[in-house]
Structures are given as structure tokens and as C-alpha cells.
Amino acid sequence: MKGCVFHWSRAVWRRVQHESLSEVYRRRGGVFKYIRMLMALQFLPTPHIPHAFETLGLRATTDATRRLVAYISRKWVHGGSFEPRDWSVFRQDVRSNKDLEGIYIYIYINII
Fold this sequence. Notes:
Blueprint: H1 5-18, H2 22-26, H3 30-39, H4 49-57, H5 63-77, H6 84-87, H7 98-110
């Protein structure tokens, strides 16, 4: 399985919290919409992600959003730990592995 909506969104959300953006995100204004667009990158075809990301990166207007963009660039877009082909869920029928994790936990607790 490649890509997981839950884990990608959680990783971005943790960085949002790290950059102290969670409070302004909860106000559902411009920062909310901006972060949601960043989180939605995973739904694009892999070849489109870098350009869309660069376009969004130009819209970062605060130091905190620029740091968030730098993190995503370094870790997820430009081949730090992962590349877009690893986390894009475009045209994937199964977009999360959360259900598999639940099964593994059940097996571990009840069988092992």
C-alpha cells in the first residue's frame, strides 16, 4: 500500500501545531483554507504535486506558514524522507491503512 490520507494529514497537522498555527487554523479563515489546500495535495496526480506545491508556497504570508511550507518541501516534496509518489493517493481505491492497523492490533492482542 502506498499513501495514506490519515497519516499524511496527521504529519502535516503535527507540524501545524509545532509552528503554533493550530489556534489560527481553528478560526476557519485564510490560514485554515491554506492549510487545507496543502493537506489536499495528496489527492493530485503525482506529476502535478511539485508545481501545485510551489504555487501554494508562494502564498505563504507569515513566518509560521513559510516554515510549514519549508518542512513539507524538505520532508515530503523534494525527496527528503518521502517523495510525492510515496504519498499521493490519486486514483487509489483504498486511501488509508488505518483499517489494517486495527486488524494488526486485534491479532496482536488476541492471538499473539
